[in-house]
Amino acid sequence: MELRQLLYFVTVADELNFSKAAVRLHMSQPPLSQQIKALEDEMGVELLVRNRREVRLTDAGRAFQADCRTVLDQVRVAVTTARRTAAGDIGTLQIGMVTSGIFHVLPTILTRMAERFPGLHIAVTDMGSADQAHAVMQGKLDIGIVHSIPTRSGLGKAPIFTEYFTIVVPQGHELAARPALALRDLEGVPLVAFSREHAPALFDGMIASCLHAGFSPVIAHTARNPLTTFQMVKLGLGAALVPRSYARAGLPGVVFREIGQTAGHIQLYAIWREQAASDLVMRVVSEVMSEPIAY
């Protein structure tokens, strides 16, 4: 049984006239009649009663007509879905994101994706850079957003965002009300720093910024994530040096103070599997990730 035979049968069942059905199908009547007869022979069921005066459906034909419509509709949907997926109009894209990218980079990417790939579902996973590189190579992520240039071979990469550090202090802290701040104002101030184990790029950038400003930071506490950092700062355990985009979190109890460009900075890269990237991934890289994100 072939799909075209179902289409032939449904068309004849709609018209109840072989000549009219043949015209709709852009074929001659004899081959159409032969195909319907072959379908009935294969099924061992009479679907149509035809004589010189009329063509009508048998009970079996009416039941088969309804099911054939469902099958043909499902096939049309399947074909449309496949074509739209191939074109990047629908489907799911798995994206990894380092935590510092959640506040500014991710919203920008989502806005661009909504404009250029409105039917695409985006699944985001908060994940460290090294884990993302591994997940991309295993095919668990389509695209990763990481802190450092991956050294692993087989990964494509493109810089997408650069940002500097800013100071965050507890509300009511003397540095919160000072008219202007410089990074050197943190000299001797206890700091809440990111754990190097969990955020090596942030830790190294913070250290580089302080050393370039002429002092060694006093690291009194360490935190694994921004929420812990902000809570420690809010509790008065110290100040912190964090990426500027963290200020977009809008958390109460802490104050963010701009200090201009710092020697240390955060560079984010998009990564993807070079040899096995799908057409969709390469379109997203080209249309969404190739344009650097401004702060």
Describe the structure.
With 295 residues, this protein is of the alpha/beta class. The chain folds into 3 domains: 84 residues, Winged helix-like DNA-binding domain superfamily/Winged helix DNA-binding domain (Arc Repressor Mutant, subunit A, Orthogonal Bundle); 91 residues, D-Maltodextrin-Binding Protein, domain 2, CATH 3.40.190; 106 residues, D-Maltodextrin-Binding Protein, domain 2, CATH 3.40.190. Helix content is 42%, strand content 23%. The protein is built from 10 helices and 11 strands. The strands form 3 sheets. Strands 3, 4, 5, 6, 9, 10 and 11 form a 7-stranded mixed beta sheet that branches. Strands 1-2 form a two-stranded antiparallel ribbon. Helix 1 crosses helix 2 and helix 5 crosses helix 10. It is rod-shaped and about 105 Å long. It starts with a helix and ends in a 6-residue tail after the last helix. The mean pLDDT is 90.
CATH architectural category of the largest domain: 3-Layer(aba) Sandwich
Write down the Rg.
Answer: 32 Å
Shape: rod-shaped
Q: Report the total helices.
A: 10
Beta strand %: 15-25%
User: Total domains, how many?
Assistant: 3
Low-pLDDT residue spans: none
C-alpha termini separation: 60 Å
Tell me the helix content.
Answer: 40-55%
Q: Could you tell me the number of beta strands?
A: 11
Q: Write down the overall mean pLDDT.
A: 90
Please write the string of helix (H) and strand (E) elements: HHHEEHEHEHEEHEHEHEEEH
Main pleated-sheet profile: 7 strands, mixed
In the CATH scheme, what's the topology name of the largest domain? D-Maltodextrin-Binding Protein, domain 2
Q: Which class of the largest domain in CATH terms?
A: Alpha Beta
Structural class given helices, strands, pairing?
Answer: alpha/beta
